[in-house]
Amino acid sequence: MRLAVVAGPATTGKTAVLRQVVRRLLARGVAPAFLKIDVQYADEDEALAAEFGIPTRKVYSGELCPDHCSVMVLGDAVRWAAGAGAEVLLVETAGLCLRCSPYVDGALGIVVLEATSGMNLPRKVGPMLSLADVAVVTKIDRVSQAEREVFRARIEDAAPSVLVREVNALHGIGIDPLLGTLLGGPQLVLGEDLEPRGLRLRGAPPVGTCTICVGKRDVGWRSHFGVVRPLESATFYRGE
What is the mean pLDDT, run by run of 10 residues, along the chain of 240 residues? Predict the structure, then answer.
């Protein structure tokens, strides 16, 4: 089975891209499954199940960052998809934490960015872009050729090793090369119990734990411990 983790800011067209991918997988006789990870609401799983009749699931991360939630549930999701007979598991994560990376070694990491989001976006999304394998640029029909070229150049500056694919997800333009990359990507190694072997988070998570993350609501760094940040200096560790 192959695994693809698809991240990107909201409204970039992640589901539209995956709808085109699913359609082409089924046309080739490849069985996909779909997992949606979001914070508090999602219906993409229901839409894809109704349209294509494929196995789908969704998970709400709630108080967890969706990227952290993805790391925790991914092993169970692989077992579920393999048990359902899937040959490709597509995981769409909300990707709201720009400091984190939802991708794992042994799987394809795809970030979806929209060309209309501004020329400097590739400089702002951090590991969500720099640790991906493929950057899919959507809504290319809404910008000029010059803007497309600048946006692509900014991606290549921020992540020189990332493969860039420009697509029009509504009409399926540019999806076939992306599909070829997916089907030519790594395969998961599964045990007899369908447990994935060797899946590890790609890149290092953010260092440190802070008291804000565990629920303390007081404002001002003097009220907190762990990794703190005053206005006039860099971060430092406060506490035992």
Answer: 92 94 98 94 96 97 81 91 96 75 90 93 91 95 94 96 95 95 91 84 74 87 89 86
Q: What is the dihedral of CA 79, 80, 82, 86, to 10 degrees?
A: -150
Domain ranges of the chain: 2-197, 207-240
Evaluate whether the domain defined by 2-197 bears CATH number 3.40.50.300.
yes
List of residues 6+ apart from 208 with CB closer than 8 A: 226, 227, 235, 237
Number of neighbouring beta carbons within 10 Å of residue 116: 16
Maximum Cα interatomic distance, the chain, rounded to a whole number of Å: 59
Whole-angstrom Cα distance, residue 132 to residue 102? Answer: 9
What pLDDT, on the 0 to 100 scale, is given for residue 99? Answer: 66
